Automatic annotation (TrEMBL):
Residues 201-249 are annotated as: Disordered. Residues 1-196 form the TLC domain. Keywords: Lipid biosynthesis, Lipid metabolism, Membrane, Transmembrane, Transmembrane helix. It comes from the Eukaryota. This is Ceramide synthase 6 isoform X5. It is a multi-pass membrane protein. PROSITE patterns: TLC. Its main location: membrane. The chain crosses the membrane at residues 44-63, 70-89, 125-147, 167-188. Pathway: Lipid metabolism; sphingolipid metabolism; Sphingolipid metabolism. Residues 226-243 have a biased composition (Low complexity).
Amino acid sequence: MWRFSFYLYVFTYGVRFLKKTPWLWNTRHCWYNYPYQPLTTDLHYYYILELSFYWSLMFSQFTDIKRKDFGIMFLHHLVSICLITFSYVNNMARVGTLVLCLHDSADALLEAAKMANYAKFQKVCDLLFVMFAMVFITTRLGIFPLWVLNTTLFESWEIVGPYPSWWVFNLLLLLIQGLNCFWSYLILKIACKAISKGKVSKDDRSDIESSSDEEDSEPPGKNPHTATTTNGTSGTNGYLLTGPCSVDD
C-alpha cells in the first residue's frame, strides 16, 4: 500500500511538473544551452524524492522476500541510483526527469494488482495486471528507446557532441533498457500462464511464496494460514502466502 501511494504520488507530481516544461514537448530542449541550464526548485525536489525512494528500495531488498532475481533487482537499484546521481551532478536533469516519469508510469498499477491479489479479488487482479503489462511494455520497449534514447544518443550528439560523461550516461541508460527487456520477458511469461490457466498465478521469481493454485488444491479443513515458509517465518515480511501477480519494477 505504501509503495502504491508513493508511485501514484510521484508519477502524478512528475506529470504535473513536466507538462509545464518545454523539453516534454520537444526533447531537443534537453540539450539547448547545456550545461548552463538552471536547476529549478521543482526539478530539485523531484530528483531528491526519486533518489531517496531508490535508496530505500536498495536497503529494504535485504529484508524483503528473497526472489530468484535478487541479483538483477540489486543491479537495477544500483544502476538507478548511479543514473539519478550522475545525471544530477552533470546537470542532465532535464532528460533525467523524462526517464524517471516514464519508468514510474506502470508501477502504481503493479502495486494495485498485488493488493488485489492479496485481498483475493482475482478478477480485479487480472484486469490490473493486464493494464500494467500493456503500459510497461509500451513505455519501456516502445516509448523509452524511440523517444528518450533517441534524444540521448542522437539529438545530444548533434547539439552538444559526445564527451566523456556522455558515454557513461548512455551506457547506464542502455543497461536499464536491457533490464527492461528482461522484465518484459517475465511479464509475458506470466501473461501466457494466465491465459492458459484463466487467472494470474504466482510470481515466477519467488522461491518461497505459495501460489493460489496450491491453496485451492489443499484438502478441506486445512487452515492455509498456519503454513510456514522455508525461511522459518510466517507471513514473510508482511506478504500473504499468495504470491504477487507480477514482477517488481
